[in-house]
Amino acid sequence: MTVLQIDIETFSSIDLKECGVHRYVEAPDFEILLFAFAFDDDPVQVVDLTDFQDIPRDVLDAMRGDVIKTAWNAGFERTALAKQFDIECLPKYWRCSMAHSFTLGLPGSLDNASKALGLGPEALKDAKGKALIKYFSQPCKETKVNGHRSRNFPHHDPERWQQYVEYNRQDVVVEREVRRRLERFPVPKHEWRLWALDQRINDFGIRVDQNLIQHAIVCSDQYTDRLLIEAKELTGVDNPNSPTQLKTWLADQGMQVDSLNKDVMTDLLALAPNEETKRVLELRQEMGKTSVKKYAAMQLGTCDDGRVRGILQYCGASRTWRWAGRRVQMHNLPQNHLDDLEAARTVLASGDYELLEMLYGAPPFVLSELIRTALIPTEGSRFIVSDFSAIEARVIAWLADEQWVLDVFQGHGKIYEATASRMFGIPFDTIVKGHENYKYRASGKVATLACGFGGGAAAMEKMDKKKEIASNQYDPLVKQWREANPKIKRLWYRTQDAAMEALRTKGTVKLAHGVQYRYSGGVLFADLPSGHSLAYPSPEIKRDPKFERDGLTFKAPDDSGKMVRQRTWGGTLVENLVQAIARDCLAESLLRLDAAGFAIPLHVHDEVVLDVPVGIGSVDEVTEIMGRPIDWAPGLPLQAAGFECQFYQKD
């Protein structure tokens, strides 16, 4: 099979990192500067488009046809080439080495992935590239050096331009070698089909309410200005937002403060020596809540047609293959609790910020509640939102063969009540509103959410968001939950034993329901029933000093992308398996919904958002599709629930 490896260098006055490639290519000055390519093992060629060189006819034909094209972060090349040459770059004929890297638990940058794969110095990415990109591919900053030019062209520095040409050539050399190393562990064909669907979802994007976003930003700015004025009057400092200035002022009030981070603010408020100091700290805390970063990210990324695109990253959560958010970060949106979201967003959109605050409270709270509602369907359509019900609880029970839990999900589905009944030995039918035993439901819910992956009291405390349980009850409740779910508890240790045995024997050890651990080529794999595998690179068994026993370690990218060794255990391994299988259930639903003709602008965790013309489709049709049995997971009881809406929200 012929493969065309491609890498391009581009220019645009729009910030790629902040706005995304779809907005980036809409700039009037967008252009592809250099086009490097190689068929299979052929020498790398570079076409200098700024010198009016033509891309060879066979390459253009390959780009338009069914020849497999590949690149690092192929979504960028696909989008840019489609724009530049006005061609359709169908994702089913592309492969992405960055996505492939993610599937193996490796970094998302070409440079870091090259190092992780052990490429020699001659194949590593050119470190000078960042400076060259900044010089030729980004607008100039106003300096005396460039004479206030808006951008640098090749004739401004021919020597550097030649370096850029060679840098572009070297990128293809490196990408090709990285691809070959990655191909030792192929991505299953059905996953490339899913990646192609992911690309189409990102290309389609989701419409945003630009008026609402603009008013949210203005409202936040005005409120922040009010807080700053009050803080200045109280402290007399020039910039109350400056931690240094505020710490100095607090010291004058008798408070020596090391940090003003939000996680210590509650403690600081309790230590405030007087009301004035307390008010200043409250203002600081309130200003920390006024961030409208998500609104701003939506605004920056909005394309000419009013849609935000490219906000989902296939396999971005590489350990479990789940999707990750990009720029707008849809995966950590605050929930909404206002009784009348529509009325609140109408007031905000009208620009009457005083009325908004009078009716609904401080702007930070209201704007947080309304973030989801900035996403709206296409004109003439509505959203159908549907998500799996308690998917992780279902998957872990299925994987562990915890039959009583499976029976609950095959029946009434009230897992929190059933768990409380089993934990406390009380009749299930008494855990209803109005009965004194209803108080046990909260313990059943929190324990279900906190304890499945070996969580203890700390996990209980984190999940007890409403603080319905006395803190001294967390430990006893953890013990009760484990006694009620002995097979799930046993699964943690069975999983750890299987992983470590596979590593010790350099072989394969079966676990349950098609899951097995397998060592191959320096990587420990967890093979899943869906047909793909989770990867744990460079695994080693090392003594755990905390528990005085052997434990499993492996390498994973840290925040900088450098591969560092980390430790894991059975509970976390089970969490990886469960989240990965839940992800595969979502993936199956995405493919089915796409085949049924539904447009998918967004999906978040275990939820899909569909953009459906009025009069077509229904919630029942969507939930039926999502609840269908999956061939590779016989006996897994799936169920979905959904609703329709005119703006995105939590039901």
From TrEMBL:
<dbReference type="InterPro" id="IPR001098">
    <property type="entry name" value="DNA-dir_DNA_pol_A_palm_dom"/>
</dbReference>
<keyword id="KW-0235">DNA replication</keyword>
<dbReference type="GO" id="GO:0006302">
    <property type="term" value="P:double-strand break repair"/>
</dbReference>
<dbReference type="GO" id="GO:0003887">
    <property type="term" value="F:DNA-directed DNA polymerase activity"/>
</dbReference>
<feature type="domain" description="DNA-directed DNA polymerase family A palm">
    <location>
        <begin position="368"/>
        <end position="616"/>
    </location>
</feature>
<dbReference type="InterPro" id="IPR012337">
    <property type="entry name" value="RNaseH-like_sf"/>
</dbReference>
<dbReference type="GO" id="GO:0003677">
    <property type="term" value="F:DNA binding"/>
</dbReference>
<dbReference type="InterPro" id="IPR043502">
    <property type="entry name" value="DNA/RNA_pol_sf"/>
</dbReference>
<dbReference type="InterPro" id="IPR002298">
    <property type="entry name" value="DNA_polymerase_A"/>
</dbReference>
<protein>
    <recommendedName>
        <fullName>DNA-directed DNA polymerase</fullName>
        <ecNumber>2.7.7.7</ecNumber>
    </recommendedName>
</protein>
<dbReference type="GO" id="GO:0006261">
    <property type="term" value="P:DNA-templated DNA replication"/>
</dbReference>
<dbReference type="Pfam" id="PF00476">
    <property type="entry name" value="DNA_pol_A"/>
</dbReference>
